[in-house]
Queue: 3 jobs
Job 1
Amino acid sequence: MKSVLLVLMGVASAAVLAGCSPSVMIRSEPPGAKAYVDDVLVGTTPFDFSVKRSDLKSSYRLRLEKGGFEHSDQTIGTRVAPGRIVGAFFSLGIVYLFKSPRDLVAPQVVYLEPSKENERDRRLGQELREIQQLRDEGTITPAEYEKRRAHLLEEK
């Protein structure tokens, strides 16, 4: 009897310690983006975003920023957690003492797009390498190379 009571106390303690804050893993591709939730810096991807059960709202604004990439605005929403409904039914609602019936929902991975300025610089570098190769091969004269190079740099 005493051992059963100890086991039950251990399970209850584990549930209290493990289950009061809904959380969701926020990832980006590429990783290392600064993450802002409701305009507050909360970490760098990948990271685990958690909220106290008492502070759980219906949604949160997520903004990811990384140099050389367009920022991304997403939503971290909440939903009814079906497993918790079943658990509440079988535990006569005791599970709700430890976990909210709602859970956080976020995108699995946020893919960041390269910024347009970064893409323009990449193209310019490629075009400059191409005309330099033409000059090195003797396909164009050094004067033609300088003329094309100046034209490309003026466009930027």
Note: Residues 116-155 form one domain.
Job 2
Amino acid sequence: MVARIKNISAGISLSAVLLGILAFTGSPAAGAILVPGTPVSTPGTVTLAGLDPVYSELVPFVSDNGGFGGTLISSVYSDPSTGGMDFTYQIEAATGYTDSIHSVSVDFYFGYSTNLDYVSGSGVVTYDSAVLSLAGPGDYITLDYSTAGIAPGDTSDTIVVKTNATQYDQEGDTAFIDGGGVTVNSLEPAGPVVVPEPMSLGLLAAGGVICAARRSRRPI
């Protein structure tokens, strides 16, 4: 039992059009794009430089069996380069406990783009891999720390989830599991997604025209 505390011309190649769409839609580009059901490892190349801090909160936690405890630092940033909100999570495991934390899940990201990475060197341990729980843009993001775990006294590298959300709320959940478990409130994406600029919409339309033209030229 888990305790609960309380994201054109025919000469133009289709790939070029798609690259243009990605460049102008304001979609997050850093880190790894999470594919539902597929564990990924991330490069640890993202930084918080250039992001505008919006809100941060510190939430203490203790597992239901008393095996581990600590503090979750949950923050949200506005990303001027995409127009979206970026969410960060860092776990400080407290001393005085016997168990390490081996699994962390954050939600809800359903309906939002989810690009994941971590800030290398911001802590002493990072996740082995991460996975989305649902088909479609994320819901739960589960981070696997099974190799080393977040041991008592250790701090995780800062987890960064870049999204196309335009708002946030404090109704998300972060769950920690290792034998015992605990769930606390955390920050999550909210509101509408970033709307593509008119140029982006034009590129999308152009991509569709090129696809249709290519299909019409195929021999029957």
Note: The chain has two helices and twelve strands.
Job 3
Amino acid sequence: MSGMTPRENFWRAVNHQEPERVPIFWGGTNSSIVPAHYNALCAALGVRPAVRPVGDFGTVNLQPELKARFHSDVELLILGSPPRRRLEGGVVQDGMWGFRMKEVGGYRTFPDTLAPLRRARNVEDVENHPIWPDPDGAVYCADQRAIAQKLHGTGKIVLGEASYAGAPFFIYPWLRGVDQWMMDPYANPGLYHHLATKITNLSEAILERWLSDVGEYLDVLCFYDDIAMQTGPMVSLDHYRRWILPYERRLVDKARTLTKAKFSIHCCGSCYDLLPGFIEVGYDILNPVQTRAKDMEASRLKKDYGERLCFYGGLDIQRLLPFGTPDEVRQGVKDLIRTLGPGGGFLFATSHNIEPDTPPENIVAMFDAAYELGRYPVGLS
């Protein structure tokens, strides 16, 4: 088992076999660096910065030199999207679903007060929303097959992100507001089912077109639904199974007919209590594995779910990476690999996007340690 490609390493790891080394994921919506800090990192390392870092959460147009410097095994393929509109007061209107974001301190936020369907009371109000995606729109798939073929040819892991066609319960609260999203199942179940079904139907149609073009070239397909906080889930497992799981499963079931990729679910925070539901949907990989959140200790996750889920993430960005020393970061990487790496099932990445207060020397120490210490057998040095 020598000289394995990144893709070969990945498929061993994700199938719970020990690869040659732990795959390193840097480059994706939620395993990157916040756009506001990206050019500063480039400058600190003497790398030509991007003209404009792109991404709502993490920078998706990473410079190849920086990815190589950090030993990244990943190439990102992201669904095309319609243009957006800039409104007054730093508000940006999405061109796909019409939700609104506000730029605050280098981040994009999604205030409930800006949710365009916040005052909807019935199905007619939902249908009167002026912006819905056209599943036949050329923008979603333009040039995607050729790009996917090229990325696949590198031998790296092709990380497919269906963006906002793979995140029904990002879209619902961004259209209605988080409070309405949580109350609608009980106060207005008819509206809830109509809106959730509409989002899922449109997402499924776009996903089907996109995967028909690129599915054969993907290694990972990412879905997103943030439904947890630092201290626990936002909803109970019973609520998840009744009101969320059926819609997520529709997208996963459709995707499974069009690609052999492994399916990743992105859920920040303390999602431990929801993991049985994630497995029922058919997700293979958990991201971003925020090990500082309640009940999300790496040892607990590995013990309880290490045979059923692959863990993608885990290196603490809340305290260790921004406030530790390079030596402490290196030790944290070593501990994480020793815990999650044995037997495979681990993809090294940060526990979310690298934040602006993170010293560049700590970022360098983290990736260099992952590359050096991630060679199997792990945990012996």
Note: The first strand starts at residue 74 and ends at 78.
